[in-house]
Amino acid sequence: MSTRTDVVDIDLELVEELTKREIAALDDKHVRSIAYREEAKTHLPGGVSSSWQTWPPHPIYVARGRGSRVWDIDGNEYVDYHNGYGVMVMGHAHPKIVEAVQRRVELGRTSRSPPRTRSSSPRSSRLGTDSRTGASATPGPSRRSTPSGSCGR
What we know:
153 residues, alpha+beta, two-stranded antiparallel sheet, 29% helix
């Protein structure tokens, strides 16, 4: 059994000094984010939507993204290694997705269009029943889309 004799002494005062210096430099880059956190705390616990974002020194608030990059409200640019949820596949603001959303938004909704009811499931059909009359929006047997692709009656 060997015994380690190569113990390294760590200067804890130097570590503390370096930590304070780096936090101050970071705080200088995040003046708006630090101020915004106080406002955000009135809407969300800790001012963030996820508890892991409360870790020190402070959260950043992303203003926009493009591809693998994001910019915070202070204008700092980052490579988004987290790529939250759906962004992981396409990147932020993928041009084809932006174009598709813009096309859909431009369609709007006219006052002549009857309102449609929708299921709480995002996979269900857009067609349902007219909420005013209860009448089916499609002729024939009643059908419902399900995630499995089977048809419920």
